[in-house]
Each structure stands twice: as structure tokens, then as C-alpha cells.
RNA sequence: CGGGGUGUGGCCCAGCUCGGUUUAAGGCGUCUGGUUUGGGACCAGAAGAUCGAGAGUUCGAAUCUCUCCACCCCGACCA
């Protein structure tokens, strides 16, 4: 059995999370409070997620763009709700070039206020619409309570900012993007609960927010990505208007939507176990690791040659690495790559060379089988698929079996998971829920949006309930 | 911003209550040499620390006092 320096999930989940990040070399603490250093292995995971999402967005006709990291403070102050939401967590630049700035700059916490004044210049006619741009950027939010990947003060994300002629078009895009996000989580073998956010949980300045919520292994919720309909709120403030076919000026209907490297946090907490990371093949920096095992120089030569041939062959289809480090025992290497969540490990010694086979270990189930060299390629193909599906199914079964239906507040207890309840959607009641139970509404899924609540009475207020919502503690 | 905790070689940490056999201990890691290698190998040797910072008390401070700083955890704020 593997020994490691990782706290058991059941003993202390936050400690487990930090241990995995350290042991798998995903990230390191920075000397800057609340910021993290993402190490190559961790960054590669993000880059794989990023590549897939970027491909999906470009396929959908979105173009990439880049705006400056600084936003004139006065721009940021323009939209009333937006300011209220972000003012407390701004980093502000007061000096530049050795002199005090007359017009202070904010480091962008998000780029609505950075981009839309420019959008106003670019958009003249309805023929300029829709405008659909995306930027991959870093943003800064001076969070009170940082957490690795999930809430560092600086984080990488993509933010899409789009403008449409009509509300209908804009709202259609909200769902389209939401589905892309949901697919990205499926790509990571994580099932997402998609749907609408409550009034108090929606984005500062938005008319409506839709979200992808992930349940992770301690039963909390991670907001995986959000897609907002901004209405004409920002258009009014930044003068994003266009001349319509009717010869009159109209305000643009805008959306913004984002997915950050917080998704890496969801991935760690959604799949990881007591032995460390478990990565689905799609986002594994190393999909197959080859461990050569030899006893002396002659066996070494034969084994290494055999490994080399297999590696070259597999490298056409997979991210493969041979662990050629000398003086490290096979056992050490096994554990090393297990902690890092590599989906498949090939163990190759004289035994395999002589029988023209390979021992294949899969990380998700921790099982090993001997596979003939002639069948290796098809076996790996199937295994990769099976690992992905198994991880997805495990996460799905976990989520589905940890949602508890409740009818009143008294039923809220320390159970690990989410609660489903019929709710009046009254903001005051949500505030109370948060204060007393540190729990908030997470999402109204489409199945529940289009039907009557199971209970007519709100589980908090006893008044008329509107829909069945999910409630949970969240990161 | 409230509550709690922790700062000692690259990492984990003992020592602090009760100041002096401590030349600051141990484990991991690193380096050198050798033997090893199918589930975190072993032996021998070596390097590596202004004990978070400053001030004070004292013959003497990692240890006591004061001030400051940093980080972590639990909340409130949020992606």
C-alpha cells in the first residue's frame, strides 16, 4: 500500500487539499499574501482546460482580444451595483513613474468597465452586431479569505463580453455559453449542475446570472463558471448604443461570462482521493507514465530499448513520459506518479520484455493487468475512455446521492452535501439562511424552473414557494 | 475585519512551561563514494540555521517582557 504525506480526506479535508497541492507540485505559496505560484504541473492542467475551452469558443465564432490590466477608477465607479460589488476588493494604483497619479487606476477585478467604453466607439450600427469578444487575462480581487486555486487574489481566467441587438439573442447566448461550460466540466469528468442564480447571488450589475455548480468531495459547492445577461445596465452607463434599421438609437443588450483556474480546484476536490490527485485523461499533463524496471546492465539495456519503442509508438496519440531517473526504486516512482494523478502507468521489466507484454496500472481504480503488446494500443484507447467514464460516474453518483430533500429549516444539519427545498426566493430569507446556517442558494436547475415546487410553502418563510432550489455551503 | 494557531537549515519539526551539558536535537531531502532497484532501498561520509524582525531584562535569551511583521486555519466578503 502506498504511503504518503497526505492527510486523509475524512480527517481534515482542507488540510488534504493543501497537502495534495504541495505533494503533487501543483502550486506553492507566494510571499505575496493571498497570491499563489502555480508550478508547471499545475499550470499545464489549466492550459489543457484552456485549450479545449478556447477551441469551443472559436468554433462558436468568438474572437480573442486583449485589453489593459489597468482600468480608470472613474470607469469602474460608473455602474452603481457593479461598484458596490467590487469596490471592497479593488487593488488601486496611486503612483506611476515616481509621481502620484491624478486619475487613479484600478487593477481590473473583471473587465466590463475596462472594455465597454471602447465597445461604444466600435459599435455604430446594428450591422456591427453581434460583437462577441473574449479575453484570456489575469484579474485581481483583494479577497479577505484566499484559498489555493479557488480564491487567490490574482487569478487567470477568460472573460467573454458580447453585445446583441435584442434581449432574446443575448439570453440565448447566455444558455449557449452555459452549455459550453457544462461541456468543459464534462471534459474534466465532472458533472455540473447548471441553472439560474438567485437575486442576491447574481453578478454585481447583471440582470440575471446562470451558473455551473460542482459538488466536491466534502459536500460543498464550487461555482465553476458563470454566464450573465447584463441587460442594458452597462450599455446605459458606457453609452453602448447603435443605430437600428428603424433609424433610431438603441442600447445594446450585453452578456459577460467567465471561467477561471478555480476549475482546477474543483478538479482536485472532485476526483482526488487519499493517495492524491486522480486526473481524467483529457486534462492530465502526463497521460501515460512508463516505469522501467531492471536489475543489472544487461536487463537495463533490453528494458530501456523495449520502453523506448513503446514510448515512441504511444507518443503519437498520448502525452507519454518515461521515468528514467536512476537510483530511485520502482516503488518510489509508483507513488510519485500516483500522487500526481497520472491515469495510466506502464510497468516494464524483464518479465514484460520476455512475454512481449506490459503491466498496466490504472490510477482511478488502482488495479493492474498484464496486456499483450499487440493489443496495447486498443487496450489503452479503451482504458482512457473507461477511466474518464468511471471518474465521471463516481462524481455523478456522489453528487446525486448527497442531495437531501428538506421541508423546513430544522432539517438542516451537519450532513455532507446539498439540500433541495421549495423556496419563496425572498432575498431577506436568504440573508437569514446565510447568517444562521452559512448556507446559500446555489442554483435553480432547468427541470425545476419549469415546474411547480414540490411543497407550496417556502421552507424558510412559510410563504408561497416559487421553485425547488439547491442550497449548500460553498467555496 | 472578528476568532484561533504557527514562525527554529530546502521541507516536516524537538527544545520554550521552569533562561545555563545545546557546539540548537531528529526525520525527509541535497551532495560524494559504494552496494541496490517488481510498492516510497541500504551503508559510510559531507554540506546546510544571523532560532520571523526590532527593542528590552540578564553575567548569560530559541527560551522571559514589549512592539512589529508574516503566514495558516475557522467565520463574514467574493469567482
Q: Which percent range fits the helix content?
A: 25-40%
Order of strands, main sheet, comes to 3-7-8-14-11-10-9
The multimeric state of the shown protein is single chain
Structural class from helices and strands? alpha+beta
Please describe the biggest sheet, giving its number of strands, its sense, and whether it closes into a barrel: 7 strands, mixed
| Termini separation | 32 Å
How would you describe the shape?
A: globular
Give the beta-strand count.
Answer: 23
What is the mean pLDDT? 93
Q: What is the annotated CATH architecture of the largest domain?
A: 2-Layer Sandwich
* CATH class (first level) name of the largest domain: Alpha Beta
- Kindly identify the CATH topology of the largest domain: BirA Bifunctional Protein, domain 2
CATH H-level name of the largest domain... which superfamily?
Answer: Bira Bifunctional Protein, Domain 2
Poorly predicted sequence stretches spanning 5 or more consecutive residues? none
Amino acid at each position: 500500500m502506498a504511503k504518503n504525506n497526505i492527510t486523509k480526506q475524512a480527517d481534515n479535508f482542507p488540510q488534504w487539499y493543501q497537502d495534495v497541492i504541495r505533494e503533487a507540485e501543483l502550486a506553492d505559496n507566494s510571499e505575496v499574501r493571498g497570491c499563489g505560484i502555480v508550478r508547471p504541473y499545475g499550470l499545464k492542467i489549466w492550459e489543457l482546460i484552456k485549450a479545449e475551452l478556447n477551441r469551443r469558443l472559436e468554433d462558436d465564432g468568438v474572437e480573442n482580444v486583449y485589453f489593459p490590466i489597468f482600468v480608470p477608477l472613474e470607469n469602474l465607479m460608473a455602474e452603481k451595483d457593479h461598484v458596490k460589488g467590487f469596490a471592497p476588493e479593488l487593488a488601486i494604483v496611486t503612483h506611476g513613474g515616481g509621481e502620484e497619479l491624478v486619475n487613479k487606476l484600478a487593477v481590473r477585478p473583471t473587465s466590463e468597465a475596462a472594455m465597454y467604453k471602447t465597445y461604444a466607439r466600435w459599435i455604430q450600427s446594428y450591422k456591427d452586431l453581434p460583437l462577441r469578444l473574449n479575453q484570456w487575462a489575469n484579474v485581481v480581487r483583494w479577497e479577505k479569505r484566499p484559498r489555493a486555486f479557488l480564491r487567490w487574489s490574482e487569478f487567470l481566467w477568460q472573460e467573454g463580453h458580447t453585445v446583441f441587438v435584442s434581449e432574446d439573442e443575448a439570453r440565448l447566448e447566455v444558455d449557449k455559453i452555459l452549455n459550453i461550460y457544462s461541456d468543459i466540466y464534462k471534459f474534466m469528468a465532472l458533472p455540473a449542475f447548471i441553472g439560474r442564480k438567485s437575486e442576491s447571488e447574481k453578478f454585481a450589475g447583471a440582470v440575471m446570472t446562470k451558473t455551473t455548480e460542482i459538488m466536491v468531495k466534502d459536500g460543498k459547492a464550487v461555482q465553476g463558471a458563470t454566464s450573465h445577461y447584463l441587460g442594458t445596465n452597462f450599455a446605459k452607463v458606457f453609452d453602448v448604443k447603435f443605430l437600428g434599421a428603424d433609424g433610431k438609437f438603441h442600447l445594446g443588450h450585453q452578456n459577460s461570462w467567465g471561467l477561471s483556474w478555480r476549475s482546477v480546484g474543483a478538479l482536485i476536490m472532485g476526483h482526488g482521493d487519499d493517495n492524491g490527485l486522480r486526473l481524467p485523461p483529457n486534462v492530465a499533463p502526463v497521460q501515460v507514465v512508463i516505469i522501467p524496471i531492471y536489475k543489472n546492465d544487461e536487463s537495463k539495456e533490453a528494458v530501456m530499448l523495449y520502453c523506448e519503442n513503446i514510448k515512441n509508438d504511444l507518443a503519437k496519440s498520448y502525452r507519454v513520459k518515461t521515468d528514467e531517473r536512476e537510483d530511485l526504486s520502482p516503488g518510489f516512482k509508483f507513488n510519485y506518479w500516483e500522487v500526481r494523478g497520472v491515469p495510466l502507468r506502464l510497468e516494464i521489466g524483464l518479465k514484460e520484455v520476455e512475454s512481449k507484454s506490459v503491466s498496466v496500472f490504472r490510477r482511478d481504480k488502482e488495479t493492474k493487468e498484464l496486456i499483450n503488446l499487440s493489443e496495447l494500443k486498443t487496450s489503452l484507447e479503451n482504458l482512457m475512455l473507461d477511466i474518464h467514464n468511471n471518474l465521471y460516474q463516481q462524481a455523478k453518483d456522489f453528487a446525486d446521492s448527497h442531495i437531501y430533500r428538506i421541508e423546513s429549516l430544522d432539517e438542516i444539519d451537519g450532513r455532507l452535501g446539498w439540500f433541495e427545498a421549495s423556496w419563496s426566493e425572498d432575498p431577506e430569507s436568504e440573508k437569514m439562511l446565510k447568517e444562521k446556517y452559512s448556507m446559500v442558494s446555489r442554483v435553480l436547475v432547468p427541470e425545476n424552473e419549469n415546474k411547480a415546487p414540490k411543497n407550496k410553502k417556502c421552507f424558510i418563510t412559510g410563504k408561497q414557494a416559487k421553485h425547488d432550489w439547491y442550497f449548500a455551503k460553498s467555496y
